Write the structure tokens for this entry.
Amino acid sequence: MRIFLMNDAVDMARDACKAPEAYDQDLVMMLKQLIARGVIVKVCGTCMARCGIHKNQPYYEGAQRSTMAELAEWVVDSDRVITL
């Protein structure tokens, strides 16, 4: 499994992003757990500066800056692609 974050989803790869109070799911923590299990997480580099409410904040360890060209390679090389 590989995960590519783009647009406002890039905030999920930043420590500045916190789960809303009384929210029963912490998506940032879930993403960190996936990284700890060896899942590759890449983040759109252009979106880092343009999207999200935490623009230009650093990514946490394990989330790697990437490009749309690399995403295109992933799609071509994949058996299945899920887009959310």
